[in-house]
Amino acid sequence: MSCTAVASGSGDSCANCGKQGSDTVKLKKCNACQLVKYCSVECQKAHRKQHKKACKKRSAELRDETLFGQGHDWPEEAFCPICTLPIQPPMGYHSKFMTCCVKRVCNGCCLATQTRGSNDCPFCRTSTDFPDYKSAIAMVRKRAEKKDPSAIHFLGDKYFFGNYGLKKDVPRAVEMWTEAAELGSLKALCALGNAHLNGLGGLAIDRAKGFEFWETAARKGHADSRHNLGTSELQLGNCDRAARHFVIAAKLGVKVSLDAIKDMFKRGDATKDQYAEALKGYQAAMEEMKSHDREVAARVGFAGYSKRTAKSLTDSDPSMQTSALRKIFSGHGASKRRKKLNEKQTSPKVAPAGQTFDCGPRKIQNPVQGTTVKKTSVSWFVDHLEIACNHPSSVQL
């Protein structure tokens, strides 16, 4: 067989020897660039040096076409199984992971279930009154044995952080993430990207491989991976690529991506059209994620309270609402919440009627005309929670 290179060839001939394709001579395209065809492996190897530069350029273009052309829609795992609405990122803040059925249910559906007087899982109706973490982990392990990617990824996270009664074991966590990723978990792909970029669990630092995991997840609609790519590209000085990633992530509801491209626009690293596209896309995403139950949950800072407290939070009697909120800030975990709020406190400030001021994790507007409210301490926050109860629209996240 002759492998002598020819000057040029048509689309139906070997790029190296010029042999025409026929019933007996099957031509195969270059897998990387899809630009040229070869009649044999020998011809492809012989033509490699001449074709290498054009091949790399075109393969990079094809890679970007798929990277930026795909992943504009939410993946299946981003939807609440109860209300079927997409869950706002970060999902860990706006939803709860149910260890009984390894489903992630939005805060709105969780609060609605508790308001109806039930402490059971909103999805599978299993009791969530576990005596300890071991019982919860045992349920997740049962799902992991059935090769459920969400359960395996969850266990990987717990091994990584060493919580839920599990001893910290980073290599074991990486193994479980790898298994979950092979089964289709996008979160596991994102975690593996972090692991390779930071050399976790005995892995060698490999930026290329880390980016590959993030890109795979981003092409399938994983918002966090898309934001990570934008952040990394920005650190590398690739502002245009970073802006394109942030725009897509903002359209998926990632607030930090919107903030990032806003900062880029202020610095002149992103165009006005890019920021406008990101802002409109983010607003459209928020509108699609909106529901009455979620608004109530966000307004009261729902974090999985008892059914009695949950019902009081949505009671028509303002005194019941205030009592429930007082209980939240004086019960389990209250010290951390008070500490977090006190760290926000500096000098006393006054908010005129109708204006918004910052108070810890949320902003509260004084809706009472002709009055002022002082921001001094957590005691103020508790004493004036009836403002939020009586005027729901005044509370903004």
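Above is the first protein from milestone M3; the second protein from the same milestone is given next.
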Amino acid sequence: MVQPPSSFIISSTEAENLANSKNLTLPQLLPSLLKSAQLLARPLISNFSVGAVGLSSDGRVFFGANVEFENLPLHHTIHAEQFLITNIAAHGGGPKVMNIAVTAAPCGHCRQFLQELRGVDDIKIVITDQEQVYEPVYEAFSAILPYAFGPCDLLDHTHPLILEKCSNEISLKDEIFEAIKGNEPDLGDGLRETIDKNEEFVGNEGFTAARGSHAPLKSSVVSDTEILSNGFSELAKDEGFAAARGSHAPVEMGVVIDASDLSNGYSELIDENEEILKREAFAAARGSHAPYSGCPSGVALMDCEGKVYKGSYMESAACNPRGYG
């Protein structure tokens, strides 16, 4: 029975060993992984799962799958090929993509998105929904996008493309945080220390509501002080912790909070979290691929355990710009 992969990346050593165990080359291995890639898909609207697998020039194998979002139009879908390239970009899988296998023909937007890769003419692609393809017939990428219009038509040949390091010259200044143009934000050990503090925070019994607990509550009292706008969520003033808990159950037992409860270092933690998110979003924006619109952007999110995730905007030459994390 086919199982989803345990990770979205297979290391070069593991990929080589897996190919050898099946007496396959690495390009031949890719189609055999497509069924597993499809199991990563979340086609909540179309119910049509697409899987993509790519081999990078450093020997690693990357997965991609389509992700759809309920109550949103289909054009918000993350397509499998875009997921794949974003996965490679986020994990330093460059400088090149060598081979791609995908279960269904890429749409026009995905073909144009792939055109943003350096050396795209050298990429070989196979489209198959068969798990066992011992002699996959790879074609040049130009076979699925002839007479392509892309970055070479609009940009200087030295301009960084997707998978290449980009450093957009942008700056962010306000009363909390200042980033000087040209300096890459370096969080270093400070981020780890703050994450540790966040973990301590969410482990505090008095703040279990902020963790998104689903345990029921019945009554809750808070002061007028607005508390915990620290990236977990904002706790409502008079409605208790129900909103921040993400719980749909009634409240059973609450915690009384006043300003003195924040004198134990958590008020400083709020500021640290805000600064970290700004720095991470700024770093993501600096690495954004936006040479056509000139509008680089980035986003950073913090989950209820204090872990930070970031994403960058990417666009292509021949379609309306869209963002992908």
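Note on the second protein: The CA atoms of residues 89 and 170 lie 21 Å apart.
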